[in-house]
Amino acid sequence: MKRVGIMFGQEDTFPGAVVARINEMNKGVIAEFVQLGITRMAEPEKYDVIIDRISHDIPYYRAFLKNAMLNGTIVINNPFWWSADDKFFNYALASKIGVAAPKTVLLPSHAHPPNTTSQSMRNLHFPIDWKATFEYIGFPAFLKPHSGGGWKHVYKCHNEGDFFHYYHQTGDIVMTLQEGIQFKEYVRCYVIGQEKVHVMQYDPLQPHDSRYVKDPKPLDKKLEQRIIDDALKLNHALGYDLNTVEFAVRDGIPYAIDFLNPAPDADYHSVGPENFTWVVNAVSEMAIEKALANDRKPAEFRWATFLQGSNGVSSSPKSSVRVAKK
Ligand SMILES: Nc1ncnc2c1ncn2[C@@H]1O[C@H](COP(=O)(O)OP(=O)(O)OP(=O)(O)O)[C@@H](O)[C@H]1O
Ligand SMILES: [Mg+2]
Prior knowledge:
Blueprint: E1 2-7, H1 14-25, E2 29-33, E3 49-52, H2 59-70, E4 74-76, H3 79-84, H4 87-96, E5 104-107, H5 130-137, E6 141-145, E7 155-157, H6 160-167, E8 175-179, E9 185-192, E10 196-201, H7 221-238, E11 242-250, E12 253-258, H8 268-271, H9 273-293, H10 303-307
Parallel strand pairs: 1-2, 1-3, 3-4
Antiparallel strand pairs: 5-8, 6-7, 6-8, 9-10, 9-11, 11-12
Helix pairs in contact: 1-9
């Protein structure tokens, strides 16, 4: 019998639903919540697949998962790449593989990292050319961490005064400054592997619990297809099995805003019943497929191949698009 385990934190609805779904599908795969204690090096785990929803918050779990992978467990999502990835890199990558991304720059942190001084940072020239940066990015602009989530330290700046006001509060966090996209539509897409995309209209200007639009007007067909293609291109290049990709649409062009979400929100109460059912089914089916195919040989990852963004993505993918309806 093949076995799938799931690791999770404070979320209550998604992990139990995936376990129940995999077990009721009766495909020769059983699912359960992972239980672990002390981890011995190089010893195989009993799981063919582990779905990881929490190792970004629990470093012990991240290290456990790398060891599990070495011993042939498939981890959704790959803990090595998740550790290496960051949002500034993502924007640069998007622009290289032909996905529209807002103009973005990486800023030296405002404060010295712990245990360093100006002496540690002598490669940085001073003064910094802010004027050229503001001319390049323009206003409004978003100041946000190069690696972060949950809207923490995301600031909208309307002018230079705003920028310095917020930048001075960012301490040693490495920040990006990004062109603000004045969008008409905004979408968040679940992307499963290199095949399935579920497009949800999302209104980031609403309070947290009412952002997934309940009764959206259908998107223009061409726009929707471009969103699907671009979401798949990004997911393929980044090698994620489960991710959400957000786009802000300006003048009919979807700009990729946020696509480093390897443990995306999948809570029933937040995403709503239809989106929840979709993601529970899609993740369960993927986990079963991977568990059945797992021959316990650790896969070889060559990032260079992924990051070309070219392999395996056709212009007419096998994707299923489902726009959130009421
Ligand atoms: N360049 C931009 N143009 C317009 N709006 C933006 C831009 N960048 C961020 N935003 C707004 O700020 C919100 C939060 O930004 P972002 O998604 O990048 O941060 P996050 O902390 O990763 O959030 P999440 O919780 O979704 O992972 C977005 O949903 C969007 O509404
Ligand atoms: Mg976001």
